Amino acid sequence: MSNKLLIRDAHSILTGARGDAARSTATDVRIADGVITEMGRALERQPDERVLDARDCVIYPGWVNTHHHLFQSLLKGVPAGINLTLSPWLQAVPFIYRRAFDEDRLRLAARIGIVELMMSGCTTIADHHYIYHPDLGYDPSAALFEEADKLGVRFMLQRGGGTVTRKLEADASTYVPPETLDGMVADVERIAGRYHQVGPRPRTRVAMAPTTATVSVARGELREIARAARRMGVPLHTHMSETVSFMEHCSAEFGCLPIEFLAEHEWLGPDVSLAHLTHLADAELRLLAQTGTGMAHCPQSNARLADGVARAPALHRLGGAVSIGVDGAASNEAADMLSEVHFCWLMHRAHAGAATRPRPAGDGEAGADTVSVEQVVNWASEGGARVLGFDGVGTVAVGQAADLAVYDLDAPRYFGLHDMAIGPVVAAGRPRLKWLLGAGRVLVEDDAIPGLDMAQLRAEASADVLHLVRTIGQ
Ligand SMILES: [Zn+2]
């Protein structure tokens, strides 16, 4: 098949960029060798070009998901954890089940999660994988990169794990042996040597990502880990400030706020991204903005676990770097990017409204401009690419990677819209994905992944869930 494509007659294009550049006046996009080469109206077809007719469609950048745990794609809606907050949920679901993940199960879960994300229009995925221990017996990193490569998405492995056993996972049912610092660093170096690409439009990248910086490694090791990552030229990632208990822990153990603790250990900067950051003091917001440290904002997971509402709009207003992640499917059964941006768009408005107080001379209404559609789209595309270091990815513009989602809005849900461009975000649900392009390749066509047997994937998932319930379920 030709690697030259001409998308024609799109109704509208949201580019993923900020400000006036968020909307393009183009209707046509020309693509060659995985890159957008021209945008305009009524572009002439050139020899060897395949034409994609995008009438009634809107074009978005392929989403960039900056935080996930793909292994959890087989742990959705586990009854034992459905009404629990973070700590007991961790014990009841991921920590108990992770021991059952061999290579085959991890590959199956990864396929489910990646396919789910692709069908929402996602083309770049960062997976924070943390099932690493000395007796594992297989290479989860290679398995994840291979599954992503087969489906054609860009992939970053945020290589998790820890060197200490945290209190939560110390009992027999959840215990896994910790790694040594040298073992962890050496493995990241090995993976980075194989998969970490720099330069424009990378396909694969690696991050050093101890699971939770304040509890998964010894305090004395934290600075060493940051320095090792910078020596290798890989970014840093970790969970941070997901619940109030992070603040309580840091204040009791270290006498400071979590972000101050990270600053002290060289864990802030434009090469650092932090998942959640649901609870931030003003001083922490300023530190994050000043250092360019990225937020991987996970609104649905934070809501599901009753973590709270992250101050993403406030960080954005300070000039900070915001991106969006779906987090693992065990705490977000809608682990797709369209659901995430829709929810994000609504949640911050609800939150702003809830904080509104009667004013003597006011009308008691505020907050509907807290975050716009263009803003959440930017966070979930260009913002994510910047936070993960995928240069040349994340916007629909000439010279950028041809990662695009072409949504067909020919369905009752979208009838009556005055502004078609915002349909996929404001109307929720999932529009028919006419095409998903990753690096200029057709990854999805007419709402299907060519060569993927969806019935087979469903059957494998059902059989595996049954097996998990029989062997581990309570
Ligand atoms: Zn997470």
Describe this protein's structure.
The protein has helices at residues 86-92, 94-97, 103-119, 140-151, 181-195, 219-232, 244-254, 258-264, 282-291, 299-304, 312-317, 337-354, 373-388, 423-426, 454-471; strands at 4-8, 12-14, 23-24, 28-32, 35-40, 50-53, 57-61, 63-65, 122-129, 154-159, 204-208, 236-240, 272-276, 294-297, 321-324, 404-408, 432-438, 441-445. The chain has 474 residues and is of the alpha/beta class. It has two domains: 4-61 and 392-445, Urease, subunit C, domain 1, CATH 2.30.40.10; 63-379, TIM Barrel (Alpha-Beta Barrel), CATH 3.20.20. The strands form four sheets. Strands 3-2-7-16-17-18 form a six-stranded mixed beta sheet, covered by helices on one side. A four-stranded mixed beta sheet has the order 5-4-1-6, with no helix packed on it. Strands 8-9-10-11 form a four-stranded parallel beta sheet. Helix 3 (103-119) packs parallel to helix 4 (140-151) and helix 12 (337-354) packs across helix 13 (373-388). The chain starts with a strand and ends with a helix. Zinc ion (ZN) binds next to loops. GO terms for molecular function: hydrolase activity, acting on carbon-nitrogen (but not peptide) bonds. Belongs to the metallo-dependent hydrolases superfamily. ATZ/TRZ family.
Question: How are the elements arranged and paired?
Answer:
Layout: E1 4-8, E2 12-14, E3 23-24, E4 28-32, E5 35-40, E6 50-53, E7 57-61, E8 63-65, H1 86-92, H2 94-97, H3 103-119, E9 122-129, H4 140-151, E10 154-159, H5 181-195, E11 204-208, H6 219-232, E12 236-240, H7 244-254, H8 258-264, E13 272-276, H9 282-291, E14 294-297, H10 299-304, H11 312-317, E15 321-324, H12 337-354, H13 373-388, E16 404-408, H14 423-426, E17 432-438, E18 441-445, H15 454-471
Parallel strand pairs: 1-6, 2-7, 8-9, 9-10, 10-11, 12-13, 13-14, 14-15
Antiparallel strand pairs: 1-4, 2-3, 4-5, 7-16, 16-17, 17-18
Helix pairs in contact: 3-4, 3-15, 5-6, 12-13
The structure holds zinc ion.
